[in-house]
Amino acid sequence: MYMLESKGGAIACMFLSLFFLGTWPALLTMLERRGRLPQHTYLDYSITNFLAALLIAFTLGGIGKGTHDQPNFLVQLAQDNWPSVLFAMGGGLFLSLGNLSCQYAFAFVGLSVTEVITASITVVIGTTLNYFLDDKINKAEILFPGVGCFLIAVFLGSAVHSSNAADNKAKLNNFTGDYKNGDTSSLKDGDIVKSKDLEGGSSSADNVEAGTAVFLMELEEKRAIKVFGKSTLIGLFLTFFAGLCFSMFSPAFNIATNDQWNTLRKGVPHLTVYTAFFYFSVSCFVIAMILNITFLYHPVLNLPKSSFKAYLADSDGRVWAMLAGLLCGFGNGLQFMGGQAAGYAAADAVQALPLVSTFWGVVLFGEYRKSSRRTYILLGSMLFMFIVAVAVLMASSGQRTSTAKE
Q1: Taking a C-beta distance cutoff of 8 angstroms, is the pair 334, 2 a contact?
Q2: Does 288 score more than 90 pLDDT?
Q3: So where are the chain's domains?
Q4: Alpha helices per DSSP H over 227-317
Q5: pLDDT tens digit string along 92-109?
Q6: Contact predicate 311/39, CB 8 Å
Q7: Least confident piece of the model among 176-185, 214-223, 237-246, 392-401
Q8: CB under 8 Å to 356, separation ≥6 — which residues?
Q9: Which of 35, 83, 271, 308 is the most exposed place for a label (fewest CB within 10 A)?
Q10: Closest to 155 in 3D by CA, of 386, 405, 333
């Protein structure tokens, strides 16, 4: 079994996890904006997300012989460690609910702001819990100023959303006759947004100027989740609910692997990060399948009804949904590996994933194009606080001396 122990290796895992976890939401957003039902997308995503956990468990978790304190994956499956297993599965439950809520929040609040608010709530609550669960192995004088930076970022993120929503409202109110007729002949080539359409699909919104009223209206016509006329409170509720769920899954995983509450019988080794991640992913997969199959027949937010047969026949976008699942699965696995080595509080630095998501939002979807100067200033300030926060949290990394049960 491969065990990551070095601080440098842990930080490398965090950076790679940061990229993966910041990219998969962009793929789900791309498919929703292209008109694919979120229930279909999430079912595909859930399958490969679980397969990633299986691959990690049977490779990194099964390499070579384990020891009594750190048995390999297959040996540990037969041990009496159910208290820790339940904590791991509880973490998977929280993550599944959070990711599912985020998928719908992306449509209402936008990719960037959703990620900012959920990540900031995760850090403020989850990192504080992990700090005490990890027996304070992280440097508090560095860690908590980093948490403060995330707290500032959540307020800036809310301000960005408010400012950008006002900008979009003004654009729609000033919608001119030329735009109503779809006349874009006066637009400059440099102002045209071309979708990075890796599947060959297209929409009329891909060929108009990003950020204009006609762009917003044609996007609304194409996308699966209709947002015009719906209260923004729906999106904010989903976003804050997702953030609360995300803030709990990492502490639950921490308890599963380190048994701070001494729930295991004497002599029973702690769950390794690979075994805990397997049970975590089983729970995440089961909850996602139950909820999304239910949503096929009883959809939310006025989405059209579907069926399992229709899902199986809907192959358009399946490759990208499955890629999103792999990215999320490996991203979570790398985060937990880094957290076990350097402290789960420091591993929460991957919650700076909005830096990556915002990049994809601007490049792929034309977010914040033609927004006001105030919106740009707030956006820049928000991203700056995230850069500071991720640097500070990584600087607070400690090194776990032992994972064995005393």
Answers
A1: no
A2: yes
A3: 9-178+211-396
A4: 232-258, 273-297, 308-313
A5: 999 999 999 999 999 888
A6: yes
A7: 176-185
A8: 18, 19, 21, 22, 23
A9: 308
A10: 386
